[in-house]
């Protein structure tokens, strides 16, 4: 018996193009561009010449990993003309997961690590080493607890309102900043002003069994910006350098890749000189708490919430000021090379705090034919034994172990600091990477031999007004910076790069802003009166609605 084979009808597209022909296309589908089906659909897949990524992938088709098999949409490669490519604004998008945790290949910045969304670069307690395991959880902040990968992204507010009349000049990713490098020699000491006293060594013997209450001492401390410093004004008039800054401002810039919270710097070019300033009442006037934690303090609209980020920052600033004054040995010999340039006995009722302002010049030139100097006002808080042995004093604070984020179940300092100090220090290095890195950089810039670190805990977790000192630890600043994986050469490279960007611009005022939700800094040109008190008040009046 012979069976006849009948060739099935072939629907040939006469014009030779792919997809349905114009003659057979229904009217409702006219002018709609043709797109391929998804691989997940139950259709026969004969050939795929569109997926360039799949054709070029070695060792198997795209969408397959060494751990598990995953599917990707057909036509989702770069060659698909209808594939959606998102490049800029990510604030209005969020991840909707189907229930299965998938390993995806995302474009991450070099060094994205364990910070809350935007990791420290090469920092913390092995935090985010070169974008390793921590980079896989870029959105949710590194290796957290179970199901941490599924937490929604936290949106932070910018430290300054970006006005429509600001002109965007540069946008620099942290990945670029992390690759900069500049070696700088030892600085030249220009002048020293203020006075310091001897550090009280009795505080080194404090422990959890011999704690000491934190006292409230009325001592005047100054945090004047660069342009408000009379000594810097005198040096600038003598053309002593090209760039002027304070150690507080410079440390933020040098540790920028570790930062998570938003901050802003005012950069003013006057002739061939650059002044780096801060805004009055801005983020530089306060100390952050657990900024780099995987689960940082939660924002709250309740002004009575003592564990909100703003309340904790104010508490930490208050603790640092009082602790630095308390550790001074009473009636010790005072070292005062020159009077405090900010203190006036006629205007101030309280005594000035122990603080010595050292003005130091660093050479930022790249070659011998170039001249590029920066003068930095640095600060030290005390001396130890002799006036040449300078000390900086800082304080870490514990607020409530039951609500503290970032380290799962944190250890109670008042119970475990003596026996498990290493674990507590490692947790602080992870949760406060940028703060500790800044303190290390400030101490190195000032030429301090030691950095005294106090551990301050609340007397009662529900009371933010009373505190106890449960321990004090000494560090050599350069060793502590190395332990924190802080690269001073990278920091100087960042400073030189930002200075070059502004000095090549016309004279005027500029603002460098750290994006609140992305590892990016942006440089804006702003009007001369952008931060004048009168101009701000006029803008607020214009924004207020008129009442009939």
From TrEMBL:
Signal peptide start and end residues: none
Subunit description: Component of the eukaryotic translation initiation factor 3 (eIF-3) complex.
Protein name, per record: Eukaryotic translation initiation factor 3 subunit D
One MF annotation (Gene Ontology) recorded for this entry: mRNA cap binding
A Pfam family per the record: eIF-3_zeta
Protein's job: mRNA cap-binding component of the eukaryotic translation initiation factor 3 (eIF-3) complex, which is involved in protein synthesis of a specialized repertoire of mRNAs and, together with other initiation factors, stimulates binding of mRNA and methionyl-tRNAi to the 40S ribosome. The eIF-3 complex specifically targets and initiates translation of a subset of mRNAs involved in cell proliferation. In the eIF-3 complex, eif3d specifically recognizes and binds the 7-methylguanosine cap of a subset of mRNAs.
Region feature (RNA gate): 283-297
Location(s), subcellular: Cytoplasm
The entry's keywords: Cytoplasm, Initiation factor, Protein biosynthesis, RNA-binding
Region span, Disordered: 1-24, 109-157
A GO BP entry: cap-dependent translational initiation
Organism of origin: Kockovaella imperatae
HAMAP family, sorted: eIF3d
UniProt remark on domains: The RNA gate region regulates mRNA cap recognition to prevent promiscuous mRNA-binding before assembly of eif3d into the full eukaryotic translation initiation factor 3 (eIF-3) complex.
Annotated family: Belongs to the eIF-3 subunit D family.
Biased composition (Gly residues): 112-134
A GO CC term assigned to this protein in UniProt: eukaryotic translation initiation factor 3 complex
InterPro entries: eIF3d
């Amino acid at each position: 018996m012979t069976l006849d084979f009948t060739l099935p009808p072939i629907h040939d597209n006469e014009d030779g193009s792919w997809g349905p022909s114009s003659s057979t296309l229904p009217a409702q589908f006219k002018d709609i561009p043709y797109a391929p089906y998804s691989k997940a659909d139950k259709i026969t897949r004969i050939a795929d010449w569109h997926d360039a990524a799949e054709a070029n992938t070695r060792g198997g088709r795209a969408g397959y990993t060494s751990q598990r098999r995953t599917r990707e949409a057909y036509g989702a490669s770069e060659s698909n003309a209808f594939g959606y490519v998102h490049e800029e604004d990510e604030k209005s998008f969020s991840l909707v997961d189907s229930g299965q945790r998938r390993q995806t290949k995302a474009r991450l910045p070099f060094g994205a690590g364990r910070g809350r969304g935007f990791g420290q670069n090469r920092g913390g307690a092995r935090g985010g080493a070169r974008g390793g395991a921590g980079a896989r959880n870029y959105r949710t902040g590194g290796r957290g607890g179970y199901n941490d990968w599924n937490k929604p992204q936290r949106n932070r507010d910018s430290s300054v309102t970006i006005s429509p009349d600001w002109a965007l000049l540069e946008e620099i990713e942290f990945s670029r900043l992390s690759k900069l490098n500049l070696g700088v020699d030892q600085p030249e000491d220009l002048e020293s002003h203020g006075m310091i006293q001897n550090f009280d060594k009795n505080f080194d013997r404090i422990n959890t069994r011999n704690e000491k209450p934190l006292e409230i001492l009325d001592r005047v401390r100054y945090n004047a910006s660069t342009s408000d410093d009379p000594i810097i004004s005198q040096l600038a008039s003598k053309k002593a350098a090209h760039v002027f800054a304070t150690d507080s401002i410079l440390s933020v810039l040098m540790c920028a890749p570790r930062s998570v919270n938003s901050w802003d710097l005012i950069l003013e070019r006057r002739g061939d000189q650059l002044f780096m300033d801060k805004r009055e009442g801005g983020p530089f006037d306060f100390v952050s708490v657990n900024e780099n934690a995987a689960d940082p303090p939660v924002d709250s609209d309740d002004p009575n919430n003592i564990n909100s980020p703003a309340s904790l920052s104010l508490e930490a600033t208050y603790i640092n000021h009082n602790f630095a004054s308390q550790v001074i040995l009473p009636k010790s010999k005072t070292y005062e090379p020159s009077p405090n340039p900010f203190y006036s006995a006629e205007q101030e009722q309280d005594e000035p705090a122990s603080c010595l302002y050292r003005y130091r010049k660093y050479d930022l030139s790249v070659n011998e034919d170039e001249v590029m100097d920066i003068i930095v006002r640095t600060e030290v808080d005390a001396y130890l034994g002799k006036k040449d042995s300078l000390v900086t004093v800082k304080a870490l604070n514990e607020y409530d172990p039951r609500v503290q984020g970032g380290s799962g179940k944190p250890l109670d300092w008042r119970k475990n600091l003596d026996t498990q100090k290493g674990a507590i220090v490692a947790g602080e290095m992870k949760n406060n990477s940028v703060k500790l890195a800044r303190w290390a950089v400030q101490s190195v810039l000032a030429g301090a031999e030691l950095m005294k670190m106090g551990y301050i805990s609340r007397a009662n977790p529900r009371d933010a007004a009373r505190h106890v000192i449960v321990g004090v630890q000494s560090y050599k600043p350069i060793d502590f910076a190395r332990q924190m994986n802080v690269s001073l050469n990278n920091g100087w490279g960042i400073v030189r790069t930002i200075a070059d960007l502004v000095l090549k611009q016309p004279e005027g005022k500029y603002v460098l802003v750290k994006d609140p939700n992305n590892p990016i800094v942006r440089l804006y040109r702003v009007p001369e009166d952008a931060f004048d008190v009168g101009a701000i008040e006029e803008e607020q009046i214009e924004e207020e609605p008129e009442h009939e």
